[in-house]
Amino acid sequence: MSDPWILTRTLEKCDTGTTMQVQALESIIEKLNIEDWHSATARFIGSVARDLTFAGRGPQDIIQHIASVCIAIVRKAPTISWLEVYKNLDYEGFSIQSQEGLVVLVHCWRSTQKESFPIQVFFKKWQNVQGQFSVLREIFSAPSSLLVLLDVTQRQVIRTEDLEVLTEKSKSFASHIMNEPCNSLDLLRGLVELVDTHAETHASLMLNHLVQKEPELLCLGLCSIQPLESPNIQKQRMRLIDMFLDGHENSDLVVSLLWHRSPSTLLECFLDRYRRDPLSVSQILDIIQESKILSQVLRSKPYFFILDLASLAARRDFLNLEKWIESSIDIHGEGFVGASLEFWKHKLNNELVRRKDKTSVVSVAVCADVVRSFLNALSKRDYVASFEPLFEQVKSLCAQLFPNEMNAPDITNAEDSLFPPEIEEEVKQYFERLYNDEIAVERIAMLLQRFKDSKISKEQQIFACMVHTLLDEVRYFGNYPEKELSSTARLFGLLVQLHLVSYIPLRAALKHVLDSVQQAPDSKLYAFGIIALSQFVSRLPEWPQYAIQLSQVESIRLTHPKLALSIEKALDNSNSGKSETSPNVLLNRDAGGAKSSSPLLEKGGRVMQKELDRQGLSQRDIINIPYDVPPQHLQDRVSFIINNISQGNLENKTNELREVLTESNFRWFSQYLVVRRVSIEPNYHQLYMQLLDSLNNHQLNECILNETHANINILLKSEKTVQLSSERALLKNLGSWLGALTLAKDIAIRQKDISFQDLLIDGYDGARLVVVIPFVCKVLEQTRHSKVFRPPNPWLMNVIKLLLELYLHADLKLNLKFEIEVMLNALKLNIEDVEPSSILENRFPKELPSGYASQAGQPPTKADSPVTAGVSGVLDPNRLAQYLFFNPALTVFAGQNTIKLTIASIVSDVLREIGEPVIARSSSVAALSSKELLCKDFASESDETSLRTAGDAMVKSLAGNLALVTSKEPVRNSLLENVHAELLHHGMPAADAKEVALIFVSDNLDTVCAFIEKASVDKACEELNLALAPSFAIRRQYRESMTSKPFYDANVLGRLPSSIMLPEILQPTRGLSAEQRKVYNWVTNVPGKNKQDSELAYSAPARVLPTDQSPPNGGLPPNRNQTMTKCEQILSKVAAYVSQIEAQHLSEIPLGHDITLFIRQMPAIIANTSDPASLALSLSQKTVNALYSSQSQLQRDCYSSLLHVLCQAFPKILKELNGWITYSNDERKYDAMAVLSLVQNGIVPLKGLDVQLAQPIESNDTNAINFGVAIIQHGLLCEQPLFNLHDFIVTTALFDDASPTSDAIASAKDVIGELKKLIHAPLASLTTLEDVWSYHRLFAEWIRLFDHPLASDKVYQAFIDKINQDVSQDGRILFIRLAIEYAVQHYISFRGNAGLSKQYATSPIDAFAKLVEQMILRETASNDEDNNSAKVVLATQILSITVLCMAQRHEVEQEKFSQKPFLRMLSGIMMNVCKMNAPDIVPQILVALGNTLYTLQPCYFPGFAFGWLQLVSHRSFMPKLLHLGKSKGWPLYHKLVLALLSFFGPILQSGHLQRSGRTFYRGTLRTLLVLLHDFPEFLCAYYWSICDAIPSTCVQLRNLILSAFPRNMYLPDPYSLNLKMGDLFESQQIPDIQSTQPMLTKAGLMGAIDELAHNDDVHAFSELLLAGIQNVNNAENDTKTLHSRFNTSVINAAILYVGATDVTESRAVPQSHAHQICTHLLSRLDAEGCYLLLNAVANHMRYPNRHTYFFSSLMLSLFESTDDSQVKERITRVLLDRLIVHRPHPWGLLVTFIELIKSDNFWSNSFTKCSPEIERLFQSVARSIQNN
C-alpha cells in the first residue's frame, strides 16, 4: 500500500518557483507512483489548511499554490473524485486553526469543480471529531463573500413558507435571522452530534455561544432535530423553550413556529409548566394569545389543562366560552362532559379547602360567571344524564362556595333548577306570606340577613334561592299587581341597603333599578324603580357614577323632587370625599342593560367628580356622551373581531366593526379597547391605530382619547403604581398609546390634560419618578413619527432638557436612566448634544405644610403662617431650606442639595434650642408689660377697637425687638460654630470652612432671627388678647347698655399699689392725653420695624421673610423708586463706612464687616422688585459714576466689588459695562486706578481696552498715552501684577516702536525700559536684553493671536513665518524656553485669582501647545535632510527643553512644585499631535513623547507623579502608541508600565497607603483595567515582567494582569463537569511572550541552563540557582529585595525559561527539568522561598495555552508527588490566596484549584481541618465552585 503522505513531503521539499508552475508540478507528481489519490490529496490539502505555510511561502501565496497543485493532480489523475478527497479529510491530525484554513478548503474545491462546495461532508459522522469541529467552528463565522451557507445546505430552520404564519413584527425579525449560519439545520445537527464525543467541551461551548447569539434559531433547530439522543441536548432544548415561555421579546415567533412544527413538544412544555405551577396558566395564555394559536390549542388534550386554559381565556374575553363548550361537546362527546365535571369538582373542592384552611393561592381562582356558563351549557345536553350524581355534587359545591353571590351561579336557561325542590317550596311560601300580608317586608329582610351569615347549609340555600328568584323575576315585574309590585320593590331595595348582595348580584340589582327609573313615569317598572331606589338612597355616596346617572334622569326630578334632592345630596357627599367603598358598580362590561358610566380604569377603583375636575375632565366630557352597553352577543362579536384582526384582513374587519358599532356605544368600545386591549397589548398598538384610522370617526377618536387620559390620570395618582411593576407596565403602554394617538399625528396634548414638566417636577418632589419618567419617555418616543413635535420643537426640547437634568442630578436608578437613553436614541439625540435645564438645580421638595406658600419665594399669609405656633412649623429642613439663601458664588453650594439640607438641619436645631426659650420669654414679658400700660392709659377709653389696635401695635413692637435683641448674638455664635464644624466634617480646609461659614451666617442671620421675631410677635399677640379679654368684655357691656355715663375701667385702680406714687403724667386720666395719643399713633404707623437700617440689614434673594407686614402696593413687590432709594442709601452708607475705616484695601477688612454685608445684599434687594434687570442696570450706572469719583483705593475696591456682585447676579450688565468703559468717547474713562480695579474683579477685559487705545495713541492723544503708561506702571510693574504682558501687548508695542516726539511718549519709553529690565533680570547671564524682550514680545503677540476668535490656519502660518524670520536657529532654543517659562509663571501667578476666569490662567499654556503644533507642521529642512526628519527633530528638541525646564523647577521648588501647568502643556501637545494630518511623522512624535515620559518617570520626578500617570493613560497617547504594533509601540509602553510599577511597587510593599497613595493606586488600577479591556494582547505578551514588578502582597493586581486573554478567544467555562484542559485545542498552542534571556544572562545563569540542556544535571543546576536567587546584594535590585531575602526576578525568569524549554521539547511533566528543580528547591528553601517559588509557577496559569497546561500540571504533580504536608499546605495557600480576593481570577488558576480539590487526596490532609475557621473556609470555597 502506498504512503498517503508522500505527496505532502515531496512538495514541501521543492523550491518555491517549481511548485508555482503547473507543468513542473505534473512532472514531480508523475514520479511518485501514487496509488490512492484520494487519501494523498486529502492529506496534502489538510496539511496546507492546518499550517497555512508551505515551502517557505506566506499566507498570500497559499491559494495560488494549492490551485496549481490541484490542477496538476486533475491532469495526472482525471478519474479522481473530489468528493471522496474531502471525505478522506477525516484522518487523525487534521484540523484548521483559523478562517484562512477554511479559505484553503473552499478555494481548493473551486479551482477544479463547478458544483457547490460539499459542505454536507462535514455534517456527517467523523472519526476525527476534533478536526470536524474545527471546520464547523469556522463555517459558523464564515463571511458571505467566502461561503453562503444557505446556498449549499439542504435544510433550513426557518423557511420562507414559515413567514406566512407569523405576525408582522415576528416576520420582520425572522426575515433578518434567516440569513444567519445558524439557520442551517444540517449544520446544527452536525454540531449536536459532537456533544457526546471527545469534542464535547468545544461543542458545548459553541452551543452556549449560540444560546447568547441566536437563541430563536437554536431552539427551533433543536426541536426540529428528531430524535435527540443526547440527554444534555434534550435538557438544553427544554431550557431554551422555558426561556421563551418565561417571557422573551421573540416568544411569539418561537411559539408560533413550534406549534406548526412540533405541537406535541410545545404542548408537553405547556403541561410540564402547568403541572409544576398551576398558576402559570396565566402566563401560558398570554403567550398563546400573542402567538394567535388559542383556538388550535383548545382543540387538543388533556382536558384538565385545556379546561383551565379556556376558563381563564373566557374571563379575559379571549374566548366565547359557551360556543366553545358546545363545539367541544360535539367533537369529543361524553368524554368532554365527564372531564369537565371532574375538573370543576376538583377545582371547587380545592377552593373550599383553601378558604377553610386559609392557605395561599396555588391555582387560578374560580369565577362564578365561568362556572355558570359551563353548567348552563352542560345542562342543555343529554350527556349530563349519564353523570347526574357528579352534576349534583358540582352544584352542591357551587352552593357552598358562593353563598353570598346567590349561593350558586345563575343558570337562567337550565331545564333543571340548581336548588332542591324542598328549598324552592319553602321560598315560595315566604313570598306567599309576604303578598298575603302575613309577614312584613322588613321581617323577610332580617331573615335574609340571618340566613346569609348562617353556617347551616339549608339556610344558605334558602337565602341564595330567594335572591336568585328576585333577580330572575325582574323581567316579569311589569306584569305584577301594584300591591305585590310595591312589596317586591321594597324587598329588592332592602337587599341593597342591608348589604345582602355584593359583586355580580349587586351590579345586577343596581342595573335593574337604573333601567326601571329610565322607563316611562306611568309604567309599573318606573314605580318599581322609584320604590326600590328609596330604600337604599343613603348608600348612593358609595357609588358616585351611579348617582351621576340617576341625577340625569329627568323624570325623577319631575315626579319625586325629594328623591332627586337626596340624590343630589348623595352626589355632593361623594364629591366631599365621604365615599368609602366602591364595588365598581356598572363598571364591568358584562353588566347588561342601557346607559352606564365609563370607568377611568377597570382596576382603578372609585372615581369622584372631584377627581374628574382635578384631571381636567368635565361632566360634559365624560358623562353627557351616551353610553350604551351593547347586548352580550354584540360584545362577543366585537371581541371576536378584535381577537382575529391582522394586517391581512384589516379592511374586512374594519367593515364588520363599523356595522356593529353605533354612536351610542362608542364609549363602551373606548373602554373595552383602552382597558382590555391597549393597556396590556403593546405589540398591537400599531394595528389598533390602523384600525382607528380605517374607521375614521372623529367622535370615536375623541372618546378613546378621553378614556386614555382618564386611565392615565388614575394610574399616575395610584399608590399601587409605585409599588407594583405590573401597574407601571400598564402606564407605560398607555403612554406609548397616547403618544401614538396624539403627538405622532401632530396633535398636541393639552396642558390641562397633562403638563409633562409639572408632572416630572411633582414626581421629583414626591419620590414618584419611578412612575413618571417611563411614562413620559414612552409618550415622547412617539414624536419620532411626527413632523411637528420632533427636535428641535421647543415644547419637546424643554421636556427633554428637564429629563436630562433629572438624568444627571437626581441620582436615578439605572432602569430610569435607561428609559431616558432609549427615548433619546429613538429621537436620534445624544446626551452630550442636549443642554440640561436648571429648573431643579436649587429646588427642594414642595411638600410644604399648610402654613407655607406653595412655592419658594412667596410669603406665607397671615392665616397660615408657619410660625403662628412657634417655630415648629419650619423645623423640617426640607421646608426651612426654602427660606435660606445659599450664595451661588460659593462652589460648595453649587448643586449640592445634600450639603444644603445638612446646613438647614443645623439651622433647625438652632431654632429649636435657642428660638423656643427666647420666644416664650420675650412674648410673656411683652404681653405683660403691654397689658399693664394699656389698661392704665385706656382706662377711660370705651372703644374696644382702639384698645385692640393700640395693643397689637405695642406688643408687636415690644416682643419683636426684645426677641431680636435677645436671640441675635446666641444664634450667630451657634450657627457659626456648627456650620464651621459641619464643613470641616465634609473635608473642607479649615480656612475655607471658616470663610464659608461667615458668609452663610451673615447672609442668613437676619432671616433666622426674623423667624424667632415673628413667632414671638404672634405668641405675644395671642397672650395679650387673652389677658385683655375682661377689658374687652367690660367695654362691650358698656356699649350695649346705651348709658350716657362716661366710661371708666374700675379694675385699673384696683391693680395699682397704693404705695406707688406715679408722676402726674403717668397718673390715670379720663382719656389719653395728646402726648400719649401721639406715641400710640407713631407706634401704630410704624408696625414692628421702627428702624430703617435694620430693615435694610437683612434679606435674601427672592425669599420673603415671614412677617405680618404686607409689602407696599397691596402685596406687590416694592416698586422701583422705593428700592432705588434703598440702594442709594446703601451706597451712601458704604461711603460713610469707608471714611471711618483706616484700611487701604477691601481685602484687609474682615468678611463679617457691615460693608461686605451691604455689598452682598444688593442683588437680594433688587431681585425682590417688579423689574430687577432694568433696576440693576440703573444701579450699575450709579456705581460706575461713584467709582470714577472715588479718591481712595478702598472706595474703588468697594464699588468694583459691588459691580462684580451685580454682574454675577445679572450677566447682561457685564456687556453694558464693557461698552461704557471700553468703547465710549468720554475722556473721564482714562482713570487708570478705577479701570485696574475693574480689571482685578474680572469686569473689564483689558484686551478690548488695549485694542481701543491703539488709535488715540497713534494720534498722540496725551490722555490716552498717560492712561496707558499708568496702566503699565500700576498693573504690570507693581509687586503683584494684575495682568501679563500679552493682555496689553498692542499698547506696549506701540510705546516700544514710537519715537519720543513728546513728553508723554518719552515717559512711555521710560516705562517700557523699566519693563525690559524687569523681564531681562532673571536671564541676564544667558543673552542680551533685546533678545529677551523681542522673544517675550513675540510670544505675547502669539498668545493674543491664539485667543482671537477669527484666527485661522493662514494667520497661524503667517505668524510662524515671522517667528522663523525673527528667531535664528540658535535662538530658537532660548525662544522656546522663554515661552515655556512665561506660560508656567503666568499660570502660577494667576491661578488663584477669584476675579478672573479659569481659562485666563491656562490660556498661555494652550497657546504654547498650539505654537508647538504649528512650528512642527511648518518646519522644513535647511539642507538635503528630509522634511519629515526635520519635523521630528524639532518635536524632540521642544520636548527636551520642556523636560529641562520642568527639571529645574522641580529641583528648585521641591514640595512647592506645581505639576498642573506642565501636565496641561504636555497633554495639549499630545492632543494637537494626534490631530495632525501627517501620518508619516505622528508615529515618530508619539515615540518621542513616550521617551520623554520615560525620562519624566515618577522615580526621578515624584512631584510630577499624578500628572505623569494621567499622561501615560491619556486617550491621545496610550491607544495611539499601542496601535503602532509589537515592534514600535509595545516595547516603549512596556517600559512605561515598568516605570510606573517600579515607583509605586515599594509604596505598595509597605502595606500602608496614605490618601494620596490610595488615589494613585486607583489611577494605576484603572490604567491596567483599560489595558485589560482594550489591549489584552499587550498584557499577554509582557505579563511575566509586569508581574515581576508587582509586589507579592498585591494579589488582585497580579490577578488582573494574568486574567488577560486574546480578544478572538472564547474561554471555556472553568466549572464544566467534563472540562479537561489537555483536550482543548488551545492547550496545544505555545503563546508568544517576552524573552527571559536578558534577565538570566544578567544573573549569570544562562550558561548553566545551556549545560543543563546538554547533560541533564538537574541537581547541579538547582544548587547554582539556589545560590543565585539568594544573592540579594546587587544594588540594582535593592527596591525589589527591600522586604525579601530572595531575588524574585531571577526566580520568575528561571522557572519560566526552564518550563518553556520543557514544553518545546515535549517532556512529560513528572520527568521535566522544571518538576525536578522545583522538587529540589522546595526541599531546600524556607517558607518564604517556597512561597516565592510556587508563586512563580502560579504566574503562568493564564488563558488556555500550552504553558498554562504545563504549569498547571506541574503544580498538581508537585502536590501529588510529595509526602511533605508542609509543601502541600504551601501549594494550597498560593492558589487560595489568589482566589479569595475579588475578581478577576485567572482562568488557568481557577481550573487548577478545581482539579486540586476534586482529588480525594486533598481533603485527607490535616491542614484542611487544622482549625474550625480554616475548615469553614475550604468548605465555603468548595461550595462556591460546585454551585457555579
From TrEMBL:
Residues 406-576 form the CCR4-NOT transcription complex subunit 1 TTP binding domain. This is General negative regulator of transcription subunit 1. Residues 239-378 form the CCR4-NOT transcription complex subunit 1 HEAT repeat domain. GO terms for biological process: negative regulation of translation; nuclear-transcribed mRNA poly(A) tail shortening. It is found in: Nucleus. Its main location: nucleus. Residues 573-605 are annotated as: Disordered. Residues 628-845 form the CCR4-NOT transcription complex subunit 1 CAF1-binding domain. One of its GO terms (molecular function) is molecular adaptor activity. Acts as a component of the CCR4-NOT core complex, which in the nucleus seems to be a general transcription factor, and in the cytoplasm the major mRNA deadenylase involved in mRNA turnover. The NOT protein subcomplex negatively regulates the basal and activated transcription of many genes. Preferentially affects TC-type TATA element-dependent transcription. Could directly or indirectly inhibit component(s) of the general transcription machinery. Keywords: Nucleus, Repressor, Transcription, Transcription regulation. It comes from the Eukaryota. Residues 899-1039 form the CCR4-NOT transcription complex subunit domain. InterPro entries: CCR4-Not_Not1_C (IPR007196), CNOT1-like_NOT1_connector (IPR055454), CNOT1_CAF1_bind (IPR032191), CNOT1_dom_4 (IPR024557), CNOT1_HEAT (IPR032194), CNOT1_TTP_bind (IPR032193), CNOT1_TTP_bind_sf (IPR038535), Not1 (IPR040398). Residues 1480-1822 form the CCR4-Not complex component Not1 C-terminal domain. GO terms for cellular component: CCR4-NOT core complex; nucleus; P-body. Residues 573-585 have a biased composition (Polar residues). The keyword Iron does not apply.
